[in-house]
Amino acid sequence: MGALTNLSGCSNGVSSNISVAINVHSSLFKDNYPSYIVLHSLETQVSNIEADVYDATTGSRIGGVIFRNVPGNASGIITVEDVEETLGYTPTPTQLHYNIVLRGNSAAYIQHQLDNEKAGFTTNMTPTCAM
Question: Are strands 108-116 and 97-103 parallel, antiparallel or unpaired?
């Protein structure tokens, strides 16, 4: 049985940047290794949290999304398919990964979870490299 684990590596060590999720799988991986974004709001009231989505290979900005009406002191799971739908974006056959970067000064952080459906477990892929 194959297993996918967190193989993130950084030339200068792991970053403490909690506003970036790197190498998030596009929906092209949805059948075997779908990615999810876990968004954590540290606000005390309902707020909107904004993020920019980039092509992980080229660094080109694909667009921005607004996660609306996020409850204060709460977490939510967002599928990559939901992010693509919000963007009105369909990945090309070679568009495999995104980098998602929170924008603004909201009190929030983001995590990247990867579901290995064949092995039956989810891996936290959150550690990021300083960009």
Answer: unpaired
